[in-house]
Give the backbone structure.
Amino acid sequence: MIDLYYWTTPNGHKVTLFLEETSLPYRIVPINIGKGEQFKPEFLAVAPNNRIPAIVDHEPADGGAPISIFESGAILLYLAEKTGQFIPDTARGRVELLQWLFWQMGGLGPMAGQNHHFRNYAPEKIPYAIDRYVNETNRLYGVLDKRLADRPFIVGEEYSIADMASYPWILPDAQGQDMEQFPNLKRWHATIKARPATVRAYDIIQSINANPGIRTEEERRILFGQKAAPKAGKS
């Protein structure tokens, strides 16, 4: 059994996509990030960066004590290696996958996240910041569109964790993008969206957080006002 500490964000969806594809037994532990549940000691013991998702695998492959893992890319890689699924079985294929998994973690996710923030959540609309991140998201869409020009999925013929990592971050309406400019990306996105496991993964949203978004100033403060906690003994 795997405990999945989850909220309805793109990074959270990455892991439900994998778990639904493989039918690994899991239970969801909702972490309402708008209420600050990511700062509870029991969650920090699993995810010291106070971010979802995180997992605890109670049946690791080595038969030892439960393993806790944070960071969505690390979780996907762990689960792929545990199951032998959605990861190439050759050294060259693995290199291809790791490049694109890291591309998502270091590029598409952070840049699209800043896009979301300045377009949709920042109390002050700063044209420079909006243009900066909308344009960078556009560039990254273009990179992925070119990659998909001669292959059905990011690594090649087979669906992989590289696709699962990137798919939830392709949100053209929220990111100021026109998918008609990216026909290969559009085809890829539609293919993944139609997979039964993807449908099941996104259906989970309704039972966890049917009305996503930031609704109050308190939620805004919790999500966007975080700083390091003061050290013990400091005022």
Remarks:
- The domain at 2-85+197-219 is CATH 3.40.30.10 (Glutaredoxin).
- The chain is about 50% helix and 10% strand.
- The first helix runs from residue 10 to 22.
